[in-house]
């Protein structure tokens, strides 16, 4: 409990620092006593950015955590298994088919249009992975299949880019770097709704996952409906990953970094404790990344890859040593 409180306080402090940090830093005095214009800047722009960062910090680690528990694979994560790329492909289809015109105005439709398309892309890929997983027990083979799916989606995206108009191409390339900037209040609200629904589905799945970790047969004896469990996890992962990808771009490796870190520091821990740790640690991590972005101007994907790739290599080497 003490650890949860410390993490919660840290996240609140980092959130406040994010509100004060940007192209022009603001002090606490400015936040509470400054002119109305500055307050409006903080509320309309920086608050939206910071809230989007928090939502990403919740969505990506929880998605990775659920996939790793479902497939019993420490490398299972939306970007590694091709789910993020499939969501990006669905978004690309919307942008390059003319849907990008809607996105320029940041209306309700733009948020829902991207999220629905990203959700469908993530869902189709997740169903395919579930089907493939039934006949594959080798961890390395399963991960290779994920990379192949990701590469295939990337190839289709490149084909769309090759034949696209310059304005659509520019818009997609900017989106693909991953950014917390430019979201309207309406888009953040849509993002929040999807995250809450996905998180509720994740929490519903946690208790049943405890029985599942003992084996499918044992879970059935306990009365766990395996089909329902997998559906709940798919809904959670697709909503969380799809909404994050649609709103912020295809952010990679966060779903591996945070769950792995939590297991290394607080293992063994009950699944309820693990998912809460993933949420708070994920929020703190993404808020830190946001601060680094403010000073370096680097896209989020570059920063997450710089941390994520060594993490994946470490997990693979550790897994090989154990086996």
From TrEMBL:
Gene3D superfamilies linked to this entry: ABC transporter involved in vitamin B12 uptake, BtuC (1.10.3470.10)
Record flagged with keyword Lipid metabolism: no
Extent of the signal sequence: none
GO cellular component: plasma membrane
Membrane topology classification: Multi-pass membrane protein
Superkingdom of this protein's organism: Bacteria
Annotated transmembrane regions: 46-67, 79-106, 112-132, 139-163, 188-210, 231-258, 270-291, 298-317
Keyword Isomerase carried by entry: no
Entry's localization field: Cell membrane
A GO term, aspect molecular function: transmembrane transporter activity
Similarity field: Belongs to the binding-protein-dependent transport system permease family. FecCD subfamily.
Stated name of the protein: Iron complex transport system permease protein
Upper taxonomic lineage: Bacteria, Pseudomonadati, Bacteroidota, Flavobacteriia, Flavobacteriales
């Amino acid at each position: 409990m003490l650890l949860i409180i410390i993490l919660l306080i840290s996240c609140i402090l980092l959130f406040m620092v994010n509100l004060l940090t940007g192209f022009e830093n603001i002090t606490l005095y400015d936040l509470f006593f400054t002119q109305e214009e500055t307050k409006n800047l903080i509320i309309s722009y920086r608050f939206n950015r910071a809230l989007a960062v928090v939502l990403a910090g919740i969505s990506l680690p929880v998605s990775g955590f659920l996939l790793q528990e479902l497939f019993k694979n420490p490398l299972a994560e939306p970007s590694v298994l091709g789910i993020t790329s499939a969501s990006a492909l669905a978004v690309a289809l919307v942008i390059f088919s003319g849907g990008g015109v809607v996105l320029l105005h940041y209306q309700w439709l733009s948020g829902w249009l991207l999220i629905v398309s990203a959700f469908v892309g993530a869902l189709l890929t997740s169903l395919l992975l579930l089907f493939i997983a039934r006949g594959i027990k080798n961890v390395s083979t399963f991960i290779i299949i994920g990379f192949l799916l990701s590469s295939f989606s990337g190839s289709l995206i490149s084909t769309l880019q090759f034949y696209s108009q310059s304005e659509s191409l520019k818009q997609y390339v900017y989106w693909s770097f991953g950014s917390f900037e430019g979201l309207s209040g309406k888009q953040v609200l849509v993002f929040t709704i999807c995250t809450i629904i996905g998180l509720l589905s994740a929490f519903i799945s946690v208790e049943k996952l405890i029985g599942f970790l003992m084996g499918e047969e044992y879970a059935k004896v306990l009365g766990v409906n395996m089909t329902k469990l997998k559906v709940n996890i798919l809904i959670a992962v697709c909503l969380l990953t799809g909404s994050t990808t649609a709103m912020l771009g295809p952010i990679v490796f966060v779903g591996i970094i945070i769950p792995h870190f939590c297991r290394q520091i607080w293992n063994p821990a009950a699944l309820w404790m693990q998912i809460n740790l993933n949420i708070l640690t994920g929020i703190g991590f993404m808020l830190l990344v946001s601060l680094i972005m403010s000073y370096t101007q680097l896209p989020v994907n570059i920063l997450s890859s710089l941390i994520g790739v060594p993490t994946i290599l470490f997990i693979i080497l550790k897994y090989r040593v154990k086996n």
